[in-house]
Amino acid sequence: MIERYSRKQLTDIWSEQNKYQIWLDVEVAAAEAMEKLGQIPKGVSSIVRRKAKINVKRIHQIESKVKHDVIAFLTSVTEKAGIKARYLHQGMTSSDVLDTSLNIQLVQSGKILLSDIDQILKVLKKQAKKYKYTPCMGRSHGIHAEPITFGLKLASFYEEFKRNRKRLVDAIDEISTCAISGAVGTFANINPNVEKHVAKKLGLKVEPISTQVIPRDRHAFYFSILGIIAGSVERVAIEIRHLQRTEVYEVQEFFSKDQKGSSAMPHKKNPILSENLTGLARMVRSAVIPALENIALWHERDISHSSVERNIGPDANITLDFALARLSNILDKMIVYPKKMIENLNITKGLIFSQEVMLELTKSGLSREQSYKMVQNYAKKCFAENLNLFDVISDDKFIMAKISSKRLRAIFNYSSHFKNVDLIFRRVFK
């Protein structure tokens, strides 16, 4: 991924240095087990651990000749550790190292993404409680529907990211497997206890059955969850973008003192960070389909998945980490305009209370169809003539014979829409 949308914690995980270090950790752990089983001389693992140094440049030099990354790596290790390093990799296949190491990188990445989500949850909880009773317009199809609170909107995002956290925990667990099973996964030339030791040493679980590779449905699940999380990021970002439109202007991204909004128009304050998140979310989701297509490999293994994972592994994780951190910052610093929210609530001059009027008429004995038509006709009149629904209904003697003046005033009040806010918050923030 490009540096502009990267954070060091994640780029370090996907660096060549870290990758080869994990390879070395896998090989050393396997050697430890082989020593205990008497399959290789004692002291191999300690010598390699002490003497082997990762030299990325040298590994690449060797690979340019041998055209095999694992062989190049092992050759480089032997150059540093000496002749005893020849006992590394006994009975193992390249995929034992590559797949186990990739899973470790995904676990490392996933744990940072979890901490990112935790930060978003913290900010959303704080902001939701702050704006718990701040009235704002609820919209369906982009059209004014009925009143909600801004706190409820944020609570909805909070609950979604709670689900995302659980999904990611499951995805990390799914991908936390180790395979040290040999050429086609039969342990023909390696003791299964080696795999057991490596798994325990590196904090993984034994893959119950591998064919030479760890089954790619596990990876597809992990990347699918990243895609879902990215969808949640975009959902929040789009909401902010819509609410910052000039015609709405209920929320605004923080705009620093020296920030410029437009190269041409000095008055502009654009929601560029949220727009950026929309784009980054697309990039993360673009990894999902290739990950799904990696599930179906030829027979016990081919390498069609390899080039895919070398791309989507770092890109999807690094991008999502950056996006989550940016979203947290946006939510924490966003500027909210409660007065504008009230102003927008009143744009339609009471039409947002039409459902309550209709329901009250049904209670008086009118059919739902009759009540609906009556209220709808007055709503059309209000739209066309810029009238207040309360005033129009108050002038209708037939309706006022069905609904008392006191009850009508109660209907045209936001409070009835917020009577269950506490209940919803208890459900979400339990």
Descriptors:
single chain, 430 residues, mainly alpha, Fumarase C, Chain B, domain 1, Fumarase C, Chain A, domain 2, Ribonucleotide Reductase Protein R1, domain 1, 3 domains, two-stranded antiparallel ribbon, two-stranded parallel ribbon, 19 helices, 63% helix, elongated
What does this structure look like?
This protein has helices spanning 8-13, 16-36, 44-51, 56-66, 69-81, 94-130, 150-175, 192-201, 217-243, 272-285, 288-293, 304-333, 338-345, 354-363, 368-385, 389-394, 397-402, 405-411, 421-428, and strands at residues 135-140, 143-149, 177-178, 205-206, 251-252, 335-336. With 430 residues, the chain is mostly helical. The chain has three domains: 9-90, Fumarase/aspartase (N-terminal domain) (Fumarase C, Chain B, domain 1, Orthogonal Bundle); 91-342, Fumarase/aspartase (Central domain) (Fumarase C, Chain A, domain 2); 351-411, Fumarase/aspartase (C-terminal domain) (Ribonucleotide Reductase Protein R1, domain 1), CATH 1.10.40.30. The protein has a two-stranded antiparallel sheet. A two-stranded parallel ribbon has the order 3-4. Helix 2 packs antiparallel against helix 3, helix 9 (217-243) runs antiparallel to helix 10 and helix 10 packs antiparallel against helix 12 (304-333). The longest helix is centred in the first third of the chain and has 37 residues, at 94-130.
Short summary of the structure?
Helices cover 63% and strands 5% of the residues. It contains 19 helices and six strands. The strands form three sheets. A two-stranded antiparallel sheet has the order 1-2.
